[in-house]
Amino acid sequence: MQFQATDIPAVIIVTPKKHGDARGFFSEVYKESEWQKAGLNYSFVQDNHSFSAPVGTLRGLHFQTPPFAQDKLIRVTRGRILDVAVDIRRSSPTFGKHVAVELSAENWRQLLVPIGFAHGFVTLEPDTEVQYKVTALYSAANDRGLAYDDPDVGIDWPLPPGGAILSEKDKRWPRLRDLADAFD
């Protein structure tokens, strides 16, 4: 298993080994002992799975507030996404900056998004499936978000000509400068 820091060191690209032959492949996509050797100690409590049929489906930018704040480990099992993590830790030197990483079933990379980041992705292929582990259970009362198109954050989303396909909730998230629930 390979662990690679991004431009924001708290966000880490994880690439599991994939062993293939004529039958297919086998991969240990998460192994606690490997993570601990790398100095990463997380206790995942829930696995989530999303399916997005059209290209341009944008989910995010989401986070949960304490005591239900979540670390996330995201991977793609079918298709391809641009996965984005925005630093919303007010005291961080990278506050308001983001990391964007392409994850796909082909490149087999995963992205570790720690607490204190808003997370989202846009699908780059039809019929994309994303799976992710989280360290806290979902809490509707602690569910928050950040506007995906905030010009102060400046994410260059690769959107199709018709634009992003969003949920009603994701259309209403505030901009970073108006975000009352940023982390300290």
TrEMBL record:
Q: In which pathway does it act?
A: Carbohydrate biosynthesis; dTDP-L-rhamnose biosynthesis
Keywords linked to the UniProt accession: Isomerase
Q: Does the keyword S-adenosyl-L-methionine apply?
A: no
Q: Entry's Pfam families?
A: dTDP_sugar_isom
The record's subunit annotation is:
Homodimer.
What task does this protein carry out? Catalyzes the epimerization of the C3' and C5'positions of dTDP-6-deoxy-D-xylo-4-hexulose, forming dTDP-6-deoxy-L-lyxo-4-hexulose.
Q: What is this protein's record name? A: dTDP-4-dehydrorhamnose 3,5-epimerase
